[in-house]
Amino acid sequence: KVRFPVNALCWARDGRRAVTANQNGEFTLWNGAAFNFEGLIAAHNSAVRSLAWSRSGTTILSGDAKGTIKYWESSMTPVKELLGTHGGNAVRGLKFAPSDAKFCSCADDGTVRVWDWELFKEERILAGHGWDVKTCDWHPTYQLIASGSKDNQVKMWDPRKRSCSATLYGHKHTVMKVLWNPIDPNWLLTASRDHTLKLYDIRVLKGAETFKGHDREVTSCAWHPFNSRVFASGAYDGRVSHWLVGLDRPIHSHQAHEQAVWDLAFHPVGHVLATASNDHRVKFWCRTRPGDDPEADLDDAQMALVRARADAIGYEPPLPIEMEEEVSEARFATTDRTRFGAPGRPPPAP
């Protein structure tokens, strides 16, 4: 079997299926419960670069390296296609509007485009970036689109107009990902090839919080679906880091893949993280189960970081069950002697 780099990944809204897209233009379907292979679909004639489920969960969009955008039903039946969009350049990002009536796309032609879903036609072109646009995301509630480009800039657009609403200059290299927080819609997360992630509050648009912890280019990121302060990021060296807003260093980091992590996404329930990599692999990660050693896979540097943070907050790890029983018996015996005196002696006078 011939394997190819996996470029894009997304979960169905009900979490029953994950869809990945590879360099050969194929979709791979994965069971969302057992995580086993379900099927392979020849979807495009060139590398698939982007995937997006509608917010209703009934349809999916895909974009490839030749500018083709296809519309699929949830059963993976093809319905419509648009050939040669964005001047035949690679479609790097797709996202539906909150109502699913519109969707946006971005590509290597340096533009973001807004499309009507019912007519499946282009409505307007948002031009302003000076280079390839690598990512875009539609705000979960507002009429606002964010985009990131190879010109190191993050721009915000009103899809009803053709003008840029704001430009952010926080990064020093290509912006690979922009993501609105699904719980707190005022937060915008950006990931860049300058090895950092930044968190912006759109009510202020300055003084962004910077997250440093990757040694190579940050290629992807994903918000947790329920915890507004938790997110994960993937890097060019294959490392995946987990972050908590308020801490500038990752709370956990591990070597997930041998090569670049091109995409990652949390299961809609939030208990599983899926990662897609240039090493031709898709992996599903979950928290340690009861009884597992959570520190078994940590290296010396990570162990030192965990212990330093535990000491800083005064955390003491729980004792094994056997030791807890011994400690409880000792405390009870001490309390018993204090209240009633030593065994064999009368209790003290009141």
Please describe the topology of this protein.
Elements: E1 6-11, E2 17-22, E3 26-31, E4 37-42, E5 48-53, E6 59-64, E7 69-73, E8 78-82, E9 91-96, E10 102-107, E11 111-116, E12 121-127, E13 133-138, E14 145-149, E15 154-157, E16 164-168, E17 175-180, E18 187-192, E19 196-201, E20 209-212, E21 218-223, E22 230-235, E23 239-244, E24 252-255, E25 261-266, E26 272-277, E27 282-286, H1 300-312, H2 321-340
Summarize the structure.
By secondary structure, this protein is mainly beta.
Structural description of this entry:
This protein is mainly beta and 350 residues long. The chain is 9% helix and 43% strand. The protein contains two helices and 27 strands. The strands form seven sheets. A four-stranded antiparallel sheet has the order 1-2-3-4, with no helix packed on it. Strand 11 and strand 12 (121-127) form a beta hairpin. The longest helix has 20 residues, at 321-340. The radius of gyration is 25 Å and the shape is globular.
State the helicity in percent bands. under 10%
Number of helices: 2
H/E element order: EEEEEEEEEEEEEEEEEEEEEEEEEEEHH
Rounded radius of gyration (Å): 25 Å
Alpha-beta classification? mainly beta
Kindly, what is the distance between the CA atoms of the first and last residues, rounded to a whole number of angstroms? Answer: 85 Å
> How many strand elements?
27
Largest sheet: 4 strands, antiparallel
